[in-house]
Amino acid sequence: MKGISLHPLKRIIVPKGDVLQGLKTTDEGYAGFGEVYFSRINAGEVKGWKRHKRMVLNIVVVSGEIKFVIHDDRQNSETQGQFAEFVLSPEHNYQRLTVSPGLWVAFQGMGKEVSMLMNIIPELHDPGEVDSKELNEIIFNFEWKDC
């Protein structure tokens, strides 16, 4: 989908605990630094929908497993009306998900444990910069399956 990219991340194997790469200023998708925040999600729960007006999101799952669903409802986009799905985990699919402004994002905790993501955003959080909808408010409602 246009406006989304995945970036494989380096995992450095260390006997007492691995080192997991996140984002460097030289990486594709880096859009500046304003804030890093972490979001936890319980297994089976879904958070979303959110659409940022200006911000590029750089999301890394730091524990557990999370399914991301992105929807493009941007006018005149070549991927308008499409969904994209990704399941990310530091154990099985360790990548950084970069999402351009204007795309709707929701995510679901997978497996049986609490999962956590880290989001690196290029500016400080601004409640006026994001649109939010409940899962059942959106016309393009995605059918979430139990994990």
Summarize the entry for a quick read.
The protein has 147 residues and is an all-beta fold.
List the helices and strands and how they pair.
Blueprint: E1 4-8, E2 11-12, E3 19-20, E4 35-41, E5 46-52, E6 57-63, E7 66-71, E8 83-88, E9 95-99, E10 104-109, E11 115-121, E12 130-132
Detailed description of the structure:
With 147 residues, the protein is mainly beta. 0% of the residues lie in helices and 43% in strands. The protein has strands at residues 4-8, 11-12, 19-20, 35-41, 46-52, 57-63, 66-71, 83-88, 95-99, 104-109, 115-121, 130-132. A five-stranded antiparallel beta sheet has the order 1-9-6-11-4, with no helix packed on it. Strand 2 and strand 3 (19-20) form a beta hairpin. The protein is globular, with a radius of gyration of 15 Å. The mean pLDDT is 93.
Salient structural properties:
147 residues, mainly beta, five-stranded antiparallel β-sheet, 0% helix, 43% strand
